[in-house]
Amino acid sequence: MSSAATDVAQPAESAQSAKAQQAPGPRSTKPASAGAGAPGPSGTNPAPRGPATDYSAFPLVAAKHPWRWVGTAAVALGVVAIAWSLATNPRWEWGVVAQWFTAQSVVNGLLETLKLTAISGLLGFVLGFILALMRLSASPLLLSVSWTFSWIFRSTPLLVQMLLWYNLGYLYEKISLGIPFTDVRFFEVQTTTLISQFAAAVLGLTLNQAAYSAEIIRGGILSVDQGQLEAAAALGIPAWRRSTRIVLPQAMRAILPTAFNEIIGLVKGTSIVYVLAYSELFYTVQVIYNRTQQVLPLLLVATLWYVVITSVLSVFQYYIERHYSKGAVRTLPLTPLQKARKFFATHAVAPNRARSPR
Amino acid sequence: MSTATADQSSTDADTAAGSGAAPAHTRGLVEITKVRKSFGASEVLKGITLTVEPGGVAVIVGPSGSGKSTLLRTINHLEKVDGGHIAIDGKLVGYEVRGKRLHELREKAILKQRTEIGMVFQNFNLFPHLTALENVAEAPVVAHGRSREEARRRGLELLDRVGLKDRAGAYPRQLSGGQQQRVAIARALALNPKILLFDEPTSALDPELVNEVLDVIRELAKSGTTLIIVTHEMGFARDVADTVVFMDEGQIVEQGSPEQIFTNPQEPRTRSFFSKVLEPAFNI
Q: How far, in Å, CA of A316 to CA of B275, rounded?
């Protein structure tokens, strides 16, 4: 191919043809045209030929990337080696993993983990949304309360918060609802009965999550152009509608990737409630391996479940982000499913196509 | 142009039914009185007084930073004034008189006033996550309580009027700049405003797209809606304006008919500005 190109390109200039032969076809155009214009080293060359040579009929050949192949091969080798060691090293005890993976107690623990994640994730983001709006409000009090909330909960370890909530009964024996600074009480309860392990866990995770999600949501809202709000205000659209219909859908594009990071972090973050002896996935696994001494395989059981949850969440993330990218990109990229369908569709008709040109 | 006439008669009917007070021929009277506005230490509007008659077309020109856009934005209370007041058909914008004071209106009342004043921005400010039709149909549903169906039907009419009916389902990013600005004009028209404000509507456009937007505005100028336009398009200004207002350093230097301002300006500042912006050929 490249030799064909050089043959036509270099009818006169023998000096350059040797160099051009090594280069792929399209590259040879430059030296050729430059040589045609200038009085080249071979002074015997007659007057310029007029219009530049036409290469339009030549097929284009893409550049080759040999090092990419070397890198790919090296990484593939590494992947195979790891997979091989995982499969063949008997100390991973895959049999034990399989035995416990769907055991009733592990599944119960898994459900508790999902429950904690869902409840504190939801409450955390709702509270975070309110905090974000407070932080963006014109009132200095709302602003500073929101700021202080985030400051406190982001600067104390989750573990400490958790233990503090659980031991709230030590600080305040009773919790009551009444008129402040009077003796009127509508409702009074022992703190220890109100704050169960579950309540302490949800409280700790929610408040912590709210502090972080407030910042994420605030960042998302700030990323929306001020002109959008002005246009909406100029059209007489009320403030609440401006937030929900105009600003939030656009802010979501900035919020979602980080929010999913947070949710995925929360899934694994729930494992910290083992300090409250709350039987979620991680605590359950611990109890089992303390009894059976099969520490690594059981940690692997928990890990695999976390991987499964994260994978499912990632799929949700993909489709939710896609939904909110409406209008932000000129054409939506194909989903993996659509890509697969297209792949099979084109490859199914390929034999027909191959026949038709003949 | 039949759609435009039909639209005009319906807006007149709306006003007559709505406010009752103002007869149809006085709708859209804008009176700006001694308006002052500062940003920090710099005073951008130094006591502006300007009247635009109902159905009139006022074009505000002047160097950048002269306060043109700020003045425009005070008319629909996007920018609060520091002094003076603005009235539309005799009714104060953003304030009401109580005793001897002007009290700022509550958000809801201001929003209602804004529905009578359409605004078109330099950067279009279309909602990028909504289609062209959804952009146009949003405000009538929310602010006027129209049904979705009615708003869509009217939205299609308006898109037709700006020549974009076939692009109703497109998102703003799938449209050219000129098309986006035409959708923005349709969006501003959707509330049947008495007054339309244009804040440099063609400044963000490629030169070859400017005319398609100006043509739409020219049509509107004939429709009887009051237009206040800030622009750098001098040829267009001369073509479309009843009144040309030349502003510099927060003040109105000179105003008058296009012939007067462009061919025979009285003030040295006006003359020196036009000598810089007008091409020689234009003055012949």
A: 62
